[in-house]
Every structure is written in structure tokens, then in C-alpha cells.
Specification:
alpha+beta; 4-stranded antiparallel sheet; 18% strand
């Protein structure tokens, strides 16, 4: 009976990856170019630096892809890994990073009420000026005495109440409810292997790795957040319209997109 293989830490797994790459006489830059990944990601994998990845799925996805390219059995390597530490959820990590990258997002909520109040005051002043400018000189609008002390209407008598009961109550017309947001049709096509995560507030719609040549269609009700690894190798269309990922892509080739409605109505 053979004893089970010893567990590997992330540092030991990274050392194994680096040794296999040296045996193949391939530099880190050549491996990164072949995998269409930044060199920094492969450096983090070989160094076993788990804190460089936002979530467990990103570390395991890159580890599986790198091990497969080096000729190792990725599932066997992952099974031998020691228990990994807990990561913050992708939603919490993204929210904290977005707050640091866009500090003006919270600042604009401070001056928005003041701007709206100023606009209201300007419009009200313009209406009053236009009204008094149309009156003859030296005159103000008169108020009729009967309007100043108008008597209160008498309470309804029992007779009138019974008459309304005999005639029947008038139908009440209800306002139609506002329709909810329409679902978005998201079409993804992948030229090279990439990872994808689509979620709504409190709900993960899709997450996984997809190979080059694959395509995926999702129908999601906004608001929705889309995270794409290796974003330059992915093409996205929203409701049949091409969506440019370059403005949303960071330094590690990861795109983070938030949609609150049809194309043209999502937040900046």
C-alpha cells in the first residue's frame, strides 16, 4: 500500500512550476507571451504569492492553465495543494478597489443636492420676476376678501352618504405599475482562454474559464457586473451592439464593467 503524496504549499507549487519551465529552457517572458498573460501573473504563481490574487478562483484558474502548458497534470497538482487561506469575496474586494480608484464618486453626492437646490431657486425667482413685470406700475395683485376668509364646507350629512351608497361607489382608476428593467442579452466570444464572472447584487450568474474559439450568451436583468480576465482576447456585444472593453481594462488585462440598463445608459 503506497502512502499518499505529501501536500504542497503555494510556494512549493510555484517552485515546481519554475523548475519545469527551466527544464523546458523557456524564459518567463516567453511563457507569458505564449499564454497571453502578463509576466507579473506568472511571477506571482512561481513565487506562491496568494495575496496578489483577488479571489481563490483566479489563483486556481491561472495555476491550472500554467501547469497544463508546462505539461503537468493540473488536477493532480491542485489536489496536492494544502488548504488555501480564505480570500475576501470578489464583490467586497472590487468595491474597496473601486472606491480607491474613483474617489470623486463619493464626492459628487455631496454637492449634488446643493446644485439642485440652486437650480430650483433660480427657476422660482425667474417665474416671480416675469409675473410682477407684467403688472401695471404701482399695483399688486388684489386678494378678494371672500377668498381670504372662505368658510369651511359643512360635514356630509347621513342622507347624502346613504344616497352615495345607493348609487354605488365610483370606480377608482389605478395607475399602471412601472415596468421593471428589461433583461440584457450579453454575447461573449473568446479568441484565447479567459476567465469570466457575471454577477448581480447578492447573486452570481456565471463564473468559469473558457477556451479560445468558445462563445457564450447570457440574459441578465440589470444592474449587473462583468469581470473578464485576459480582456483583450474577448469580444462583448450587449443587445446586439459591440461593447468596447479597452476603457474598462486595468493593468493586469482584467476588465470590470457595470451595466445598469441598455447600452448608453450604464454609469461612467
Amino acid at each position: 500500500m503506497t502512502s499518499p503524496e505529501p501536500r504542497l504549499t503555494s510556494v512549493e507549487a510555484g517552485t515546481l512550476l519554475a523548475r519545469c519551465r527551466d527544464e523546458r529552457q523557456v524564459s518567463l517572458e516567453q511563457a507569458a507571451q505564449a499564454l497571453h498573460l502578463p509576466r507579473q501573473i506568472l511571477d506571482h504563481l512561481e513565487g506562491g504569492r496568494l495575496d496578489a490574487f483577488d479571489a481563490r478562483i483566479y489563483y486556481l484558474g491561472h495555476l491550472r492553465r500554467y501547469a497544463e502548458w508546462l505539461g503537468l497534470a493540473p488536477e493532480t497538482l491542485i489536489d496536492r495543494l494544502a488548504p488555501l487561506p480564505e480570500w475576501d469575496s470578489p464583490l467586497t474586494a472590487s468595491a474597496s478597489r473601486d472606491a480607491q480608484e474613483t474617489p470623486w464618486g463619493r464626492a459628487r453626492t455631496r454637492w449634488l443636492p446643493a446644485v439642485l437646490s440652486g437650480i430650483f431657486l433660480v427657476v422660482a425667482a425667474g417665474i416671480l420676476i416675469a409675473y410682477f413685470a407684467g403688472l401695471p406700475a404701482g399695483r399688486l395683485p388684489a386678494t378678494h376678501p371672500s377668498r381670504m376668509l372662505a368658510p369651511r364646507p359643512p360635514p356630509p350629512s347621513p342622507t347624502s352618504a346613504s344616497a352615495r351608497e345607493r348609487r354605488g361607489a365610483l370606480p377608482v382608476t389605478q395607475k399602471p405599475a412601472r415596468p421593471g428593467p428589461r433583461p440584457l442579452a450579453l454575447d461573449f466570444s473568446f479568441r484565447h482562454r479567459s476567465w469570466l464572472e457575471v454577477d448581480r447584487p447578492g447573486q452570481i450568474v456565471y463564473t468559469g474559464l473558457l477556451d479560445g474559439g468558445k462563445s457564450l450568451t447570457l440574459r441578465v436583468t440589470p444592474p449587473v457586473r462583468i469581470r473578464i480576465g485576459n480582456a483583450p482576447a474577448v469580444r462583448l456585444t450587449v443587445n446586439g451592439m459591440p461593447f468596447a472593453l479597452a476603457p474598462w481594462t486595468g493593468s493586469q488585462r482584467v476588465a470590470v464593467v457595470r451595466l445598469s440598463g441598455p447600452p448608453g445608459k450604464h454609469p461612467p
